[in-house]
Fold each of these.
Amino acid sequence: MNTTQKAAAVVFEKVSKAFGSVVAVNEVSLTVEPGTLVTLLGPSGCGKTTTLRLIAGLEMPTAGKIFIAGRDVSLLPATDRDVSMVFQSYALFPHMTVLENVSYGLRVSGMKKKQAGEKAEAVLAQVNMPGYGARLPSELSGGQQQRVAVARALVLEPQVLLFDEPLSNLDAKLRRQVRQDIRELQQNLGLTTVYVTHDQAEALAVSDSIIVMRNAEIAQKGSPRDLYEKPEDIFVADFIGDANVVKAEIVRIDGEQAIVRVGVIEIPLPHRGLTPGEVDLAIRPESVQLSNGAAGDALAGEVLKATYLGGHIEYTVATPVGELFVIDPRVHMMFSPGGTVGVSFAERGVTLVHP
Amino acid sequence: MTGILRSTAAAWVPRGLILFLVAFVIFGPLANMLLWAFTEVWYFPAKLPIEWGFAFWERVFRPQGNAMESLINSVLIALTTVVIAVSVSIPAGYALGRRRVPWRGIILVAFLLPQAFPSVAVHINVARIFYSMGLAGTFFGVVLVHTMQGLVFSVWISTAAFATIDHELEEAARNLGASALRTFFTVTLPLALPGIMASGIFVFLLSLDEFTGTFFVGVPDITTLPLLLFTASMEGNYQIASITSLILLVPSVAFMLIIERFLKADVLAKIGN
């Protein structure tokens, strides 16, 4: 099965959706390139699931236009859209066998029972569930149910595949495996995929591109690396990974660079349109470097807490600019609580952020 | 070891006693009914029937006795009532359980109203209206009275059955390309079916046992088993009453067996969910 030539772009043009007086999606514009996996990431109630349902046609926009493969589908009902969705609850029909579930979409489109069954079997084999056709969904484990739900969506060879928090009902160990499976499948089939999650680690792991949503609007979009290393504002910095947000001051602008003073040290950073004065600086925990004693151009810090976690050590360090949370991969040496350390910053993982 | 044995015995004696009492309360009257059904002569102070026999069975099933006619009437009325009640409660339950219906609560309570007032008062008035409409003493008139009483069960249970179906299942069907009608018949209705079947059983049993409404609307043209039972009891003929009760069990059990064949036990067990 090769669906590459079917993969379609999804485009939102200032799409809004209101439920009564509650605005769930507010003038969102976005583009999902054909064959890519885009994640909608955000806290609950940010509008990410509504956005997904707008693509599926399960909600109709109150304003704006939605295009799939260049065709305006804004008011096209779900039944007539070539979009398949894997629901959070999987939504497998409990009164049908696995095979009946998977071939349901083919049957309603008029395919003969035998042919539909054969095709469903083939897709079940593809998601590693061969021979499960005669079972009822209630006889399967959560992970197996999820694969059946994926098979049911894939069998229609949709232009766009949608996932609504697909891992939320799986136990932690299975999640890593399943998200790899989903990513692999998506890449092998070259499917345009939109994926909703509130888990930033999941988003970073599976996505070509991430759209962070907040309060019905897009906070930032970009590649996982962009979002992690160059978060636009405090919200994104804090939502994706851990971030220490400290007050700093732009001393002067020098071309593309801003010279930023943090305590006693000055570091050059891209200015991102900010002007001299007080600013917020987001620092990733692994970008804080600790050294013995307060030497030269380092901040003087005092170790408050040190936790050995096997793969790395977590510190809480008090500095003149506030408490910093630090992740240090050097597990062979450990700074003891109460000790004095020098604190400096790595080149990557330190960014000016908009408030 | 003996200590354990003694303590288990001590625990089982009160349990056994309670079980016996419960069994006695449930099966005592039934046993009494069974005894009466095969009694020829039984009077105080004898503890058990003095003479046993089948004489009264012969009387009940005698061609000029109207037991068989009443039985057929009862079953036909009950089946028709079930068909009408279920065909009303499928659309009503779907609308009330899955759609936003204005006055939903009031509509649901309205079905309860006939049960909320003393049933004699309700049925006397129903009888008066039916007389003026020519429905009194007709098969259809009795069916209508039974349906009125049955609807509260069938509509309420169907509403609950439809309401508990996960919306995502219907959305999944639509997402897979099924039309609204197809979604209803392939997903929604099959999932509500156990509840609807259960409501059908309730309505059937209710109609089979119904007395007051049949008495006021049906008599003397339509006789059902409960009426026969009533007449026999009033005449002090416990044998006839007991035999009629036993006959009344036959359609109930048969109906439940039929339903059970269509519905696997695990489906029935999901009714509560």
Amino acid sequence: MPETIDLTILETLDFDDDGFMTDANDWTPAIGKAIAAALELELTERHWDVINFSRAEFAEHGDAPSLRKITKVGGVPTKELYVLFPGGPAKLAAQIAGLPKPTGCI
Amino acid sequence: MKTLLILGAGTGGTMVANKMSQMLDMQEWKIIMVDRDETHYYQPGFLFIPFGIYGPNDVVKPKRSFFPSNVDFIYSDIEMIEPEKNRVKLTKNNQVINYDQLVIATGSHIHPEETEGMLDGGGWQKNIFDFYSLDGTTKLSRFLKFWKGGRLVLNVAEMPIKCPVAPLEFLFLADWWFTERGMRDKVEIVYATPLDGAFTKPRASSVLGDILTQKGINIETNFNIGSVDAGKNKIKSYDEREIDYDLLVTIPTNMGSDVIERSGMGDELNFVPTDKHTLQTQKHENVWVIGDAGNVPASKAGSVAHFMLDVVIENILRAIEGLEPLPEFDGHANCYIESGFEKGILIDFNYDVEPLPGKFPLPGFGPFSLLQESHANHWGKMAFRWIYWNILLKGGEMPFESQMTMAGKWS
């Protein structure tokens, strides 16, 4: 039986136009699960490694990490990241971790 | 005697040397510059070489021509920066230079080897070219002269890149050039980008995306290249999309200098973590960064280095007097985007304000139209080369403020 996830938790939160939480401080792991569920992703331990790494990077540097940083510093190979977060790993990981859209691109 | 040491004599380093030689008391201070290359490259000109608008000789001059006479210059590789010891080791004669203030202006460089199969797959400089190096752009120019047409794919490997508008300019110029040669109908142009649109900022992305459509250029967004299959002439993304090419023009991964990595001073792309408003390095109070060597979230372009200049100079002078640096750099960038058929687009933006439409007031030259095509913008871009060699590098006065102004912009 997959775990039932309460999506109503998301209704009380503010999101920007791209679907990123506007205040990273409001985030909790339960919110992370709900965002992932809304994106039709079921989170494994490996997902949580990436999410926790992204949260820690944001706390230290004020930005969500780029794909390369998750790979090089976080130690998760790029190919695996695309399996975990299909489409856009850096963006999806940031979105689920309640962080702003990664600013790697100027 | 105290020492101001400048690493890198490109656009940023040369401007700092020229300004500082006027500002510092040269009885008390010595300025030393280090660079491994004797040639100064006008990098914005590389874009024009494939299309025969400039030749290689139009974009090079000896570095020495731009140095003030009271600055010492050493041609050498840099072995190691040791900021804890306030010293830098050079390769040449194992020389060690102790400094009081250090400016890092070592720039960013392309690394095609970061993409699997790009450099080692057998296609490099046969039908895969870059235009971010003089060698690459010159060889691409030769290839294009004899190309019969097919599918041209322009791919940006990874952000950030030096001058984020250059890929778009390349596409616009390619459309124009193939049209002029009467072979536009034989060339399919595809832009494969890791971004989710034509550009990084929403308003400009929409305007520039429309221009791509009008010119019949196809765009493949969110394409993160994983590998090149040079045998089959395909690029593959990490999410397993494939694009066939006959000619691949790549903007490879851009990284900071190797010496930054060797010295343990860089982030995952060897860019030096730098305060985005003071331009002081995050770890060392007497180490400063100008231009694309740092990790500030502004465009990695010469115009940005120019807007950084006054802030870096003022903050170094303040540091020498024991004062705190001022957070004055606002991320200002100002880019002429060449759009083909002797037209151009001008964009002007900073950390907080995205490129907006309107008029850019430039005393003596302007106004220039913002975020729309005009002939004046093209001539502004072409005039810039003269301004670069004759005024900008020498630290001369430009009719710009370092900080962005909202005058003339429609918000």
